[in-house]
């Protein structure tokens, strides 16, 4: 029997989000219904609400979640009812040209549920990143459920998007390792996870850049060895002077704006790597002298989901958390209810919140 539960939707561009009744079908072949325990509020949810991703309203928001499998459809063998899982938006297909080349982290045909969740009048919803988890129960492809060791859902659920994206941007995409220097521009949940990842990987110079002193204080906790407030100090000059005049080996851009991308481009060392993990809206453009792109060498990369493989990376990061080597608790600024998502979007702009986490 389809179930009717409460969830948070964005009905039209820029309008406040609403808590409404949503119909969740029984899981079909290859699908699972998951009882959501927690879901973090990610900046990408706000991008959806503002029309910055696409125009497929109404959206069922939320995508950074942990919960427990309630029911599975035919043919599902990897997870079973009762399993504690983190939801992922990279259920790899194993068959596309990326998977065939042994690079499933770039899978071009990731799985989502085939059935649709709907409003009570039958209107189909577009779940954010194919998940939709500001809701009591959600329907996903079974491959979107990654089984992990039992742990606080509010903390480890953040691995489902922003924290994994940031950690992986530094470690997987940027390849930061022992003795490297890294600068991270934008120290929200994503940027601070990049900083934490760089520390775990052994980077020795970790420069945090933000326009908020509160965020920079938090960055020190995650492992920043230096901080730069770019509203008062030129970040390119500062990063160069903190790296012997050279620039950082890797610069992670975790804002998604042209000016911060340009800072990242010029703040890296010759042959260094820029990693764009911030999501730009479609109107944003950068203009760079082509001679500088050529002459500075190195690599300009973008990082979707930190180039992660959920089945490889989520359990490993939960282990690091449980061993006290990766402080996921410190990303959880507040625990809120389903009705508080709009207020959480406001707080995202004020500079003091890393993650508001909806607890169901
Ligand atoms: N690539 C991916 O897979 C992926 C995954 C999750 C989120 N994201 C994106 O990453 C970005 C960051 O997400 P978040 O959840 O951490 O957002 P957030 O709002 O929590 O953090 C953004 C941070 O950037 C800072 N900032 C804003 N303008 C700045 C500027 N001009 N210079 C320096 N710092 C500035 C803010 O003070 C804030 O600390 C967003 O664009 C989000 O959509 C990407
Ligand atoms: Zn694939
Ligand atoms: Zn996200």
From TrEMBL:
Cofactor(s) it depends on: Zn(2+)
This protein's UniProt keywords: Heme, Iron, Metal-binding, Oxidoreductase, Zinc
InterPro entries noted in UniProt: ADH-like_C (IPR013149), ADH-like_N (IPR013154), ADH_Zn_CS (IPR002328), Cyt_c-like_dom (IPR009056), ER (IPR020843), GroES-like_sf (IPR011032), MycoS_dep_FDH (IPR017816), NAD(P)-bd_dom_sf (IPR036291)
Top-level taxon of the source organism: Bacteria
One GO molecular-function entry: zinc ion binding
Residue ranges annotated for the Cytochrome c domain, each copy included: 25-139
Pfam families: ADH_N, ADH_zinc_N
UniProt key word Protease: no
Family: Belongs to the zinc-containing alcohol dehydrogenase family.
Protein name: S-(Hydroxymethyl)mycothiol dehydrogenase
Species assigned in the record: Humibacillus xanthopallidus
